[in-house]
Amino acid sequence: MRDSIEQEIAARARAHQATIARLKGARRTMALAGAAPAAAPLVMLAHGDSWFDYPLAGNGLSLGDTDVIAQLRTMGQVNPIILNVSHYGDASTDELSWPKQQRMIDALSDSANWLEAAAPDAILFSGGGNDIAGDQFCIFLNYATPGTSGLNIARLEKALGMVEASYLDLFAFRDRYAPGVPIFGHCYDFPIPNGAHPDCAGPWLKPSLDYSGWTDLDAGMAIVRQALIEFRNLLERLASNPDHNFFLVATQGSLGPQDWANELHPFPDGFKKIAARFVDTLRGKFPGRI
Questions:
Q1: In the chain, helix, strand, coil percent, each to 5?
Q2: Domain 39-284 adopts which CATH fold?
Q3: What is the dihedral of CA 130, 274, 73, 36, to 10 degrees?
């Protein structure tokens, strides 16, 4: 499986480098002809979980990825070019494990991946959801008894501590291997813990809620919402420190009930709504580039 994943990442890199080579050639031709250069597209590195690497269309098979990165590549006045080294199913601690960091180092150190500089314009990151969602979600729930809240904040904060450690390590990694490059992250959105899932994975929320006695859908939605707000608060705190050079894309509240394909993933049009939030935030940092 590891070999298969590495082969897929390598194929993405080859396709990305071919795009960069074509763009470099076109820009050289324009320069030789004395034509004014067109606005350079953003060239970015993406690393993340299934919100950046979702090979399904809703819950069914797809001819290609339908995730945030797949949508973002087609958006903006100037479409961005993105080298995506993400893989679905990764927790933030997996994403910052040394093999995954080495994967990013390899991408960053290859000048064929980048346009006019020796580094990407930005790093896009998606991480934290898989640290909490899944069979382990029950760890963060109180048993349903009268007068008891569903979410155990104290235990959730322990898990969010590991998420925070991962993000802080990402910032340190960036400072070492891509100094000055901004990082853009997001805070997911509020899913519906109704047990919906594709045949190949899940469900990730309802089994734990049912096991802990929170069988009412509205109660479950409130618990999941509270957990994601705590996650968002963490990322807002990280983004408030200018030393982190980290920008949080405000994605919560983007999706309606009709946008969710399952407990964790939107339909393609839902991913497009999330990608649109990325476009808005990137434009604030790179006016005229997207």
A1: 50, 10, 40
A2: Rossmann fold (3.40.50)
A3: -130
Residue 107 pLDDT > 90:
yes
- 1-21: b (≥16 Cβ within 10 Å) or e: eeeeeeeebeebbeebbebbe
Q: For 248, phi and psi rounded to 5 degrees?
A: -95, 125
Can you tell me the distance from the alpha carbon of 5 to that of 86, in angstroms, rounded to the nearest whole number? 10
DSSP 46-63: EEESTTT---EETTEE-S
* CA atoms within 13 A of residue 19's CA, in its CB half-sphere: 18
* Report field, pTM of the whole predicted structure over 0.85: yes
Q: Long-range contact list for 104-107, CB < 8 A, 24+ apart? A: 104/45, 104/47, 104/173, 104/177, 105/177, 107/13, 107/45, 107/83
Of 233, 216, 225, residue with least CA distance to 151: 225
Closest CA to 177 of 246, 104, 81: 104
pLDDT at 28 over 90: no
Tell me phi and psi for residue 134, to 5 degrees. Answer: 125, -170
Per-domain residue ranges of the chain: 39-284
Mean pLDDT to the nearest integer, 118-146: 96
Closest CA to 186 of 92, 250, 241: 250
